[in-house]
Design goal:
It is a single chain. This protein is mostly beta strands and 156 residues long. The protein contains 1 helix and 11 strands, in the order βββαββββββββ. Helix content is 4%, strand content 36%. The chain is globular. The termini are far apart.
């Protein structure tokens, strides 16, 4: 199990199950939502993600059709995203983790929309658009599980 929380501690969650991906997203939505050059996104199975404290403190924001972002109504911490086109996944903001997920980011998504003032200097694979189709996306290292996981947004 991996745990996470918002900045003020009003919202806490647990991740049980498999991590599906860990990536940096450079899409305009993630840049605006994070206030940075990119967002660190950890994808995990929906069935293994659970809010354990403060569900009533969560604010839901539909950032684009079918994308629901959740943040703490007290401190404003961005916590996770659910995308209707990926119903089996939850995309957790990696900065909200309290524990080490024991995996590292595997790729950069939406590099075609990266901030012009930011240079990508690591050797991770880069995808000009969002999460690649199954089979071509990098796999989570060693099929890590939380017992032992941002979804890129479409360009406007």
């Amino acid at each position: 199990m991996i745990t996470g929380s918002c900045h003020c501690g009003a919202v806490k969650y647990e991740i049980h199950g498999q991590f599906l991906m860990f990536a940096y997203c450079h899409c305009p939505d993630c840049r605006k939502y994070s206030g940075s050059a990119f967002s660190s996104i950890l994808g995990t199975e929906s069935a293994g993600f659970k809010i354990v404290v403060g569900e009533d403190r969560l604010i839901e924001y539909q950032s684009s059709p079918g994308k629901h972002r959740f943040f703490c109504g007290t401190c404003g911490c961005r916590i996770y995203l659910r995308a209707e086109h990926r119903p089996g996944m939850v995309f957790v903001r990696a900065g909200s983790l309290d524990d080490d997920p024991h995996i590292k980011p595997q790729a950069h998504y939406w590099t075609s929309a990266r901030a012009p003032w930011h240079d990508i200097t690591d050797s991770l694979p880069q995808y000009p658009e969002g999460l690649p189709s199954q089979g071509s996306a990098p796999k989570a290292e060693a099929q890590q599980t939380a017992g032992g996981d941002g979804e890129p947004a479409p360009q406007p």
